[in-house]
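Extended Data, panel c. Modelled sequence:
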Amino acid sequence: MRKLVYVVLTSLAVALVGCVTINVYFPEAAAQKAADQFIGNVLNEAAPATPAPKVQKPAAKDGGQPSAMLLDLLVPAAYAADTPNIRIQTAATEAIRGRMQGRFQGALGDLLDSGAVGFTRDGMVAMRDAAKVPLSQRAQANATVADENRDRTALYREIANANNHPEWEAQIRATFAKTWIEKAHAGWYYQDASGAWQKK
């Protein structure tokens, strides 16, 4: 009887581990942390790295009984699934970050400060009030907005691809969109959920 229970528990454990590792979901908390870090760096904010806490597995007390073996099989897989990480540092994302940082310290920062440009609800930037830009500078302002949006589109795609989940691109964009708005400086404009412009 004990051998039968062991075989059943072992089979159950293998089946459960298979389910845990096959079920791939979008790691929202990890994406939020990645967005905070990337956008904080672009906006020159201090982004302290907080290492994930180490979880120690309790030592088995029953000398290798089937229940302990079941936990040994399930806990690592479940823990790995619960604490995913999103890779945001690639050669492409670093190049994009550098270009974005330069724009925020220069032309784009000036456009945001003046209220001419704002953050859209879909993770991009848009001309909000062209009248705030002198006519002679509007072509350059539009080019700056276009360059920023091109880099943002490439960034969201690159992060999804770097994590081997191109299907996550829309969710990564949504997470970054929310974070750009959260980290917007006082006086900058952003679109609310209805698309209306609001001042931070």
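The first strand starts at residue 117 and ends at 119. This feature is highlighted in the accompanying rendering.
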